[in-house]
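User: I'm curious whether this sequence folds into something compact or stays loose and floppy. Could you predict its structure so I can see for myself?
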Amino acid sequence: MTVEPTLPEPVRAVLDERDIARAVRRMAHELLERNHGPQDLVLLGIPRRGLPLAHRLADALRAIEGIEVPVAAIDPRHRRDDLAADPSDRSVGGPAGTGAFLEPQVRVDGRVVVLVDDVLHTGRTVRAAMDTVSAVGRPRAIRLAVLADRGHRELPIRADHVGKNLPSATDERVQVRLAEHDGRDAVEILRPHPRENA
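Assistant: Here's the prediction. I'll summarize afterward.
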């Protein structure tokens, strides 16, 4: 009798709804501690899932300190060096054709800007977001908060606040699911399907 080897599951759940809520609360406390309070903080969420995470961080900061922290979306796609430009896309956004886009417009000059994203991987999106922030103003500091850091950096970028470090293989994907977009909260590692001839 031949026993077939057991293949790993294609999806491995890493964080559930409670874990994500706990990670967001912890990152909010870390932000307050590092900044010595909520003054001058601005949260810029990188769409798609970084924006709802930024709103959740703002909610946690309000629950802790009772103060509203501004939240806006930042779109760094025009500054990515690894994405082919779409010649039909004529939108530039931002002041005076800078290629920067903040919605709603928020003042970043002299403030502590916290970029918020779901997964930190190569660092290219974050670099593009930092360039976008610099195009619209001169913040006092730029910090980075991510729900999951999976490693495999291509640029020397490090998150200041991390919900969960998730070492993963280069052929795996880290998928963040948020109720605002996906109907549920979860962080999963997706493994590639084994090849037929492997």
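Summary: Confidence is low (pLDDT under 50) at residues 84-99. The domain at 22-79+97-167 is CATH 3.40.50.2020 (Rossmann fold).
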